[in-house]
Amino acid sequence: MRASGEHLASRDAEIRRLQQDNFRLQEQLTRANRELALTANIFTVAAPKNASARVFIDPQQHAFVVIVAPPGSYELSVIRSDQPNPQRVGSIAVPSSGQKTLMLTQLPPQAAIKSFALTPR
Q1: What is the number of domains present in the chain?
Q2: pLDDT range class, residue 32, cuts 50, 70, 90
């Protein structure tokens, strides 16, 4: 009887440990999925060698564009996966600080966006 009680206690302890491990793994999976969702909404922008740009798209389909480039005028285009030619999104004037941030509200659905391009005007 005593051996049976010890076996039950050992089994119960193992079940508790496995439940704790499962809970920890579920938390890690939730965090990883949240991080993946964030990074899936970031696009690198094809740009001249001396420029850098990123586009961040939020869940409401607003695009926040961050550009670091020499002062001047640039054109931002979206390259869609369902169309052969880039679609002009807008003209951007980078000030003397070399930094520009803006928000775009008129974009194709995110699933149709392949990439972005920044070109000097």
Answers
A1: 2
A2: low
